[in-house]
Amino acid sequence: MTEATTTLTRAANGMVERFNGRISEVARQTRFASAAQLEQTLSAYLKTYNHAIPQRALGHQTPLQALKKWRADKPALFNKRVYEQAGFDTQSGGAMSLNPWRPAPRQRIPATR
């Protein structure tokens, strides 16, 4: 019997919550001189997390190792090519956020007289 969980809860997204908690901890403990330095630090941590930190939920494999095993076991799931990969949320020149869970910022519409 499978147990249903509600999406976007700590139970359903334990790894995501743990990752977000660790990122928050890094951000709280570090004073960044610029946004570029913050982005560089987050990118380095993301790489370390995905390539070097085994996860109990993945059978004590790193996320990359688990993904490679999944691909070897079920190659049909990997036929599609990814053309645009989301990066960090950015807003430049009025660009919309790349995070699908965060709504795009509202644009002000000038009042007409």
Task: Please report the total strand number as a whole number.
Answer: 0
The outline comes out as: extended
Structural class: mainly alpha
Q: Quote the distance from N terminus to C terminus.
A: 63 Å
Rg result:
19 Å
Topology order in helix (H) and strand (E) letters = HHH
Summarize it.
The protein has helices at 14-29, 35-52, 63-73.
What does this structure look like?
- This protein is mostly helical.
- The chain is 40% helix and 0% strand.
- It contains three helices and no strands.
Question: Helices, strands, pairings?
Answer:
Elements: H1 14-29, H2 35-52, H3 63-73
Which descriptors would you attach to this protein?
3 helices; mainly alpha; 113 residues
